[in-house]
Amino acid sequence: MNNSHSSSKGSIWRWVKRILIVIGVLVLIFIFVVVPFGFSWLLTHASSRPSDSVMTETPAKYGVAFEPVSFESLDGTPLSGWWLPADSSNVVVIYSHGLFRSRLELLERAARLRQLGYAGLLFDFRRHGESHGELTSAGYLERLDVLGAVKFIHEKLSIQKPIVTFAVSMGTAATMLAAAESLEIAGLILDSSFLSFDHTVSHHINLLGLPAFPLANEVILFTKWRVGFENGEFDMATAVQKIGDRPILFIAGSADTRMPPEISQRLYELSPSQHKQLVIVEGATHGAAFRTNAELYEQKVVDFLSENFNHTDAPATN
């Protein structure tokens, strides 16, 4: 009887241990496979937040004439935007928004520069706003959108003036990568830059209170596999050196925890340009430098354009 009872208890305990092992394995798979794969899926399927997905405002709100336009990214992805013409402009400014946003993010800045005589192209990145696309990539695929915008200006609009990119957050990565590939981008205005894809993922995983290792490594691995880029291809430190001596204006917020100002400082130091500037807006959080101190922000941008592209800042008629 006792032997039978002990055998029964031992059998039950063996099954309990097996169940616990299975549960443990499933938990580990969830944490180290499902979670990072899910993060990667969310990143590569990001789109505009609801308030940015519908074009509730246009440049007309600021008294600026515009034309709705459509064009293709270099990989054929259909993109939508607004063309703000200005025949007297010495340059054309391409505006590139951040992740989860749309062309609306830079609308007020574009309208103000148009009032000062600068032609511009506002557009939505792939899977954002009114543009199409299957995947987002925090800047790598979006570089093709920027290059598509450059091609549209030169070939469809038949404009051969210098092109300056004006970008925020994800847009800074896209425009830096694009400029590293194309000399057709003559200058860059970069608000809230990040250092590299790997660094950004690791940093944001830490901000969520999660361990960067191994979660960040797995998110990076899954995303590189989904998007199709290799180590070093999505690195702003490399891109800024390839951009060379072209004028660059770095803008950062002193209170930005997502893309700390030290990143812009680092890129500024790495840039070989003799025409580089760095502006840190006190108290500004991520992407909020313009809202925090619009007067300083606008003055620095206008000075940068005027000094490097010989354009008067006198108001022009619409």
Fraction of residues in H or I helices: 40-55%
Q: What is the highest CATH level, the class?
A: Alpha Beta
Question: What is the rounded Rg?
Answer: 24 Å
Low-pLDDT residue intervals, each spanning 5 or more residues = 312-318
The name of the CATH architecture is 3-Layer(aba) Sandwich
Secondary structure: number of strands: 8
Structural class, please?
alpha/beta
List the secondary-structure elements in sequence, H or E: HHEEEHEHEHEHHHEHEHH
Q: Give the overall shape.
A: elongated
Tally of distinct domains: 1
Provide the CATH superfamily.
Answer: Alpha/Beta hydrolase fold, catalytic domain
Order of strands in the sheet with most strands: 1-2-4-3-5-6-7-8
State which percent range the strand residues make up. 15-25%
pLDDT averaged residue by residue? 91
Query: Which fold name corresponds to the CATH topology?
Result: Rossmann fold
Number of helices: 11
Instruction: Characterize the main sheet.
Output: 8 strands, mixed
Distance between the termini: 99 Å
What does this 3D model show about the protein?
The protein has 318 residues and is α/β, with parallel strands linked by helices. The protein has helices spanning 2-44, 50-53, 107-115, 142-156, 170-181, 197-207, 212-227, 236-243, 261-270, 289-292, 294-309; strands spanning 67-72, 78-84, 92-96, 119-123, 163-168, 185-191, 248-253, 276-281. It has an 8-stranded mixed β-sheet, sandwiched between helices. The longest helix has 43 residues, at 2-44. The termini are far apart.
